[in-house]
Amino acid sequence: MLQKVLANKPLSVLALLCLAGGIATLGYFILLIRAADDSADWPSTTGKLVKCRVAKHRSSSVGGRYGQSSLGETVAYDLDMEYEYEVAGVAHRGRRFNFGPHTGDRDYWSEKAKKYCAGRSAEVYYNPRVPEESVLETEGGEENYIFILMGLGFLGFGLYCAVQLFRERAA
Question: How far is 168 from 171, CA to CA, in rounded Å?
Answer without folding.
Answer: 6
